[in-house]
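Narrative summary of target 7.
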Amino acid sequence: MTKTVHILKLSVGTDDVAGLAAWQASARAQTSDGLPRHITRMWPKRGEEILTGGSIYWVIKGVILCRQPILRLDEYVGGDDIRRCAIVCQPGLIRVAATPKRAFQGWRYLDPADAPEDLPEGRQNEEALPPELSKALAAIGVR
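Modeled conformation, tokenized:
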């Protein structure tokens, strides 16, 4: 049986969860079948583990705030003829317990045991706190 693994990724240039959702709604951030995607230079070596229930966890301004289940990994070749990986996700962002995360480059694997829990169903539609406040509260143990 294949173990599941997640991906941890910085959402560069995004101020909040709503900003990430707006970016993903743009045509540039979607596949030809209308699904959100993130294009990255490196192809995950653990692709099989990602595709057995893995999600991409988004870090916004130093805090993991949401995730998306990963549906598939597509090859993407841009105008420069360089092969890249398009991480294709389920539409919609699932908010998770705010968890501080220091900056890093690229993406990282995230073990399911280390992944923040989803917010309860009743809290998914609450207006999100600003990332800076979420980070400060998480640092003192308030989620």
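The chain has a mean pLDDT of 88.
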